[in-house]
Each structure stands twice: as structure tokens, then as C-alpha cells.
Design goal:
275 residues; alpha/beta; globular; binds ligand C2E; binds calcium ion
């Protein structure tokens, strides 16, 4: 390592980069992980602000890698997208989520389950029929499955994404625009989307009790959403001060560590029952 004007200058050598080796390992292991049953869904509740009721959860995938242990989605969803495996992976997530929604309904605790879709999934022409097939076979209504799509995923192919979301929405699935506020969509475009809810990105929510600009952004987003007939979900709610502000601003639902962290399906079931 050389020092130049107080800055450290590193010469890059691929063979010394543990990250690229790790990336390579994960890439090769990802291919067999589905067949080896190494993925698990965790669930994080979303609470209604009006009555505190929890009637919906978000499914979040985790990978139990035999060599490394638990790996979080930010580390492998991108790899799955690059290798084209995301189609298969999303099919697995949807199947698991529908099975879980059916199990909770049978258990007397009907709960909507939200699934995250990737940009690539929005280009998969067969997706609507696939989800509909799962829901029909399970004997549950499409209303029990919510689909979350990030604003930036939609904006990567605005026209095709809109067509896909229109088809899914017409079938009865609810659409939430995820990470809202980070993806440069225009208001005109937003109006043309068949969305039911906006999920306000946690980068605005987390510190809003201490940052007046963040609080203004969140409040204006809630007003904007409501004026367009959309529900609002704030993510990354970590303390009571943020909850209180969101309540004052009329936010519809909240999700975050203040309510509960993501948990396994058994724990989630006990959590729903307790509430
Ligand atoms: P996301 O959809 O924005 O999900 C929210 C993330 O924030 C989750 O991270 C969740 O555990 C975390 N989180 C929830 N509450 C709090 C909080 O109060 N504070 C903080 N700091 N974090 C909180 P996770 O599970 O690591 O997922 C990361 C991202 O990976 C997700 O972001 C989503 O974009 C993606 N992802 C997760 N599961 C799937 C999946 O099944 N399919 C696809 N395509 N993407 C997924
Ligand atoms: Ca999400
Ligand atoms: Ca999000
Ligand atoms: Ca996110």
C-alpha cells in the first residue's frame, strides 16, 4: 500500500480480493441451493396504524449456506438476477408464500403475505398465470398475496413493467411500490401505474424524528399517496418517536424493528395469535 498526499492508494489484484473469490463461490453454490432446499422465508409483520392490528406480513428470503451459514438477500438476489436464476427463485418464493398464507388461513389467522419481485420478473410473460395457478391450487383468493416491486425495478423497463403490473392487478393481486422515493419516477407515470400502496423507503423514515427534511419528505409522500388514492406503508420504523410522527401524518401501515424483526413461520404464527 502506497501513501500519496495522505490518501492510501491500493493496487488492485483480483487474486487478493476476498470479495471476488467469495462472489465466485456463492455464484457456483447458488445453482444447487434450490434443489438442496437451502432457502427459507422469514416474515416481518406490518401493523395497521389505526387499530394496531397485524393482518399482513412481508416474506423475506434467507439462504442457509452449508459452508457459511445464513446469508442475507442483499448478497445473493443480485447474483441470482445476473445469472438468470431469479425466475426460478421467485417461483419458489411465491410457492412457499402461498402455502404459508393458506396454512395461516386454515389456522384461523388469515394473513396477507407480500412477496418481493425483481426487475427481471416483470419481464416474465408467464408470471401472472404462474401465480394464479398457485393461488387456485391452494384454494385462496388472490387478495391474500401482495406483490412488492421497487420503484427502480419498474423504472428499468417502464412500459413493460406497467403492462405486467396491470395484468397482475386485474387478477386481484395488490401491488405496492417498494423503496418509494429512491427511484426517480415521475408523478405522471406513478398515476398510470395500477398500484395500491406506496412503501416509503426507510432511508427517509428511520431518522425522521431527528431530521426535519426527512419528516417533510415522509409527510408529503403520505399526502401525495392519499391524494392519488394509494395506501402508505412506512418501513424501517425503529422507535416510538417515529411511530408517533407517522400516526400524526396519517400513515396507514408501519413495518420495522419497533414492531418486530423478520422471524421464522412458526414464530410468526405465535406472534399473530398473541396480537
Ligand atoms: P426490502 O424489500 O426493502 O425489505 C426490507 C429490508 O429491511 C429487509 O431486509 C428487512 O429485514 C429490513 N428491515 C425491516 N425493518 C427494519 C428496521 O426497522 N430497520 C432496519 N435497519 N432494517 C429493517 P432483508 O431481509 O435483508 O432484505 C433486503 C432486501 O432484499 C429487501 O429489501 C428486498 O429488496 C430483497 N429481498 C428480500 N427477499 C426477497 C425475495 O424473496 N425476492 C426478491 N426479489 N428480493 C428479496
Ligand atoms: Ca419489500
Ligand atoms: Ca423496501
Ligand atoms: Ca430495500
Amino acid at each position: 500500500m502506497a501513501k500519496k498526499d495522505g490518501l492510501e492508494v491500493k493496487v488492485y489484484r483480483a487474486e487478493e480480493d476476498p470479495f471476488s473469490l467469495r462472489r465466485f463461490m456463492l455464484l457456483s453454490e447458488l445453482r444447487s441451493a434450490l434443489a438442496a432446499n437451502e432457502f427459507v422465508l422469514h416474515y416481518q409483520p406490518k401493523a395497521n396504524m389505526s387499530d394496531g392490528v397485524i393482518d399482513s406480513v412481508e416474506a423475506l428470503i434467507r439462504w442457509n449456506n452449508p459452508r457459511e451459514g445464513w446469508i442475507m438477500p442483499d448478497e445473493f438476489i443480485g447474483l441470482a438476477e445476473q445469472t438468470g436464476m431469479i425466475g426460478e427463485l421467485t417461483h419458489w418464493v411465491l410457492k412457499e408464500a402461498v402455502t404459508q398464507a393458506k396454512a395461516w388461513a386454515d389456522d384461523g389467522a388469515p394473513t396477507r403475505v407480500a412477496v418481493n419481485l425483481s426487475a427481471r420478473n416483470l419481464l416474465d410473460d408467464g408470471l401472472p398465470d404462474y401465480i394464479m395457478g398457485l393461488v387456485r391450487r391452494a384454494g385462496i383468493a388472490p387478495e391474500w398475496i401482495d406483490l412488492e416491486v421497487t420503484e427502480s425495478a419498474i423504472m428499468s423497463h417502464p412500459e413493460l413493467s406497467r403492462d405486467m403490473l396491470l395484468r397482475l392487478s386485474a387478477m386481484g393481486f395488490s401491488i405496492a411500490i417498494d423503496d418509494f422515493g429512491t427511484g426517480y419516477s415521475s408523478l405522471a407515470y406513478l398515476k398510470a401505474l395500477p398500484a395500491d400502496a406506496l412503501k416509503i423507503d426507510m432511508s427517509f423514515v428511520r431518522n425522521m424524528a431527528h431530521n426535519a427534511d426527512d419528516a417533510t419528505i415522509v409527510r408529503s409522500t403520505i399526502d401525495l399517496a392519499h391524494n392519488l388514492g394509494l395506501k402508505t406503508i412506512a418501513e424501517g420504523v425503529e422507535d416510538r418517536a417515529v411511530w408517533d410522527l407517522l400516526l400524526a401524518y396519517g400513515c396507514d401501515k408501519v413495518q420495522g424493528y419497533f414492531i418486530a424483526k423478520p422471524m421464522g413461520s412458526g414464530e410468526m404464527q405465535a406472534f399473530i395469535r398473541k396480537k
